[in-house]
Amino acid sequence: MKTACPDCRTVFRITSGELRARSGQVRCGRCRTVFNAFDELSDDAAPLLPPTASTARLGQDPSPAALTSDLAASDAAGLGGERDGGWLPGSPAPEVADRAAQAAAERSTEVLTTATTATPLAPLSSPGESDQESKKHWLGDARRPARSAASQRWEKLLLGMLVGLFSVLLAAQLIFQLRTTISLAVPGLQPWLSALCELIGSELPLPQRSDLLTIEASDLQSEPGRAALLTLQMTVRNQANHAQAYPLIELALTDTRDKVIARRVLFPEEYLLPDALAAGSFPARSDLDIRLRLETRSIEAAGYRLYLFYP
Question: Domains of the chain by range and CATH?
Answer without folding.
Answer: 2-134 (no CATH), 149-205 (no CATH), 210-309 (2.70.50.60)
